């Protein structure tokens, strides 16, 4: 009987420790969250060298945002209205610099980073109607 009880306790412990943890809430970053990271992304040591992990987070965020808009346009068959119209040859670094400048002037940095990026890009690169 003691052996069965030990096995049951062991089984309960195994189940308790392997049960999935509750999902953590995903909170989108704010403009304030990305301001320092994007400023770090612009720091270069002369040549094009990889920046910090923080800078890489900003580059990934901005690139993902742009790519997401392009993918949405592709899914819509190009029939949707473009959010912004950056000139050909505009680089990610230029967009990040624009974003950092926008965030520094913004009084709403607590807003979601994506909304603030959209705001910065539409103001800087409006589409002709």
Key descriptive features of the protein:
mainly alpha, 129 residues, single chain
Instruction: Please report the distance between the alpha carbons of the first and last residues.
Output: 82 Å
Structural class: mainly alpha
Q: Summarize the helix and strand pattern as letters.
A: HHHHH
Total strand segments: 0
Low-confidence stretches: 8-17
Overall residue-averaged pLDDT value: 79
β-strand percent reads under 5%
How many alpha or pi helices? 5
Write down the Rg. Answer: 23 Å
> How would you sum up the major sheet?
none
Assembly type of the shown chains?
single chain
**Helix share, percent:** 55-70%
Inertia-based shape: globular
Question: Can you tell me about this structure?
Answer:
- The protein has 5 helices and no strands.
- With 129 residues, the chain is mainly alpha-helical.
- Helices cover 60% and strands 0% of the residues.
- About 8% of the residues have low confidence.
- Helix 2 packs across helix 3 and helix 3 packs across helix 4.
- The radius of gyration is 23 Å and the shape is globular.
Task: Briefly summarize what is shown.
This protein is mainly α and 129 residues long.
């Amino acid at each position: 009987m003691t052996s069965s009880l030990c096995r049951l306790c062991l089984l309960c412990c195994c189940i308790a420790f392997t049960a999935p943890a509750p999902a953590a809430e995903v909170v989108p970053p704010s403009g304030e969250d990305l301001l320092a990271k994007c400023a770090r992304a612009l720091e270069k040591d002369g040549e094009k060298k990889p920046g910090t992990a923080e800078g890489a987070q900003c580059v990934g965020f901005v690139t993902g945002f742009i790519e997401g808009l392009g993918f949405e346009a592709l899914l819509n068959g190009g029939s949707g209205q473009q959010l912004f119209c950056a000139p050909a040859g505009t680089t990610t670094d230029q967009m990040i610099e624009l974003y950092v400048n926008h965030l520094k002037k913004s009084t709403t940095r607590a807003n979601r980073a994506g909304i603030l990026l959209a705001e910065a890009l539409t103001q800087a690169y409006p589409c002709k109607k």
